[in-house]
């Protein structure tokens, strides 16, 4: 995977995480809110880890 492709993929992951967080804020169902927030958190964490690995940082951010 090229550097541009990877950057685009990471950007899409971050955008999707933001969209999920926005959806979570708008929903009135507590279980659905929790599910969306957790999914958003995992996606954001994964994108940060992949970004860190690409930059040479071997230590996860968590």
UniProtKB/TrEMBL annotation:
Q: Where are the compositionally biased (Basic and acidic residues) regions?
A: 1-51
Alphabetized Pfam families for the sequence: DUF6381
Could you tell me the superkingdom of the organism this chain comes from? Bacteria
Identify the stretch(es) annotated as Disordered.
Answer: 1-62
Q: Matching InterPro entries, A to Z?
A: DUF6381
Can you say what this protein is called?
Small hydrophilic protein
This protein's species is: Streptomyces montanisoli
């Amino acid at each position: 995977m090229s550097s541009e492709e990877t950057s685009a993929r990471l950007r899409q992951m971050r955008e999707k995480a933001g969209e999920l967080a926005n959806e979570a804020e708008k929903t009135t169902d507590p279980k659905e809110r929790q599910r969306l927030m957790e999914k958003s958190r995992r996606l954001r964490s994964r994108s940060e880890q992949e970004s860190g690995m690409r930059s040479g940082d071997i230590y996860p951010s968590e």
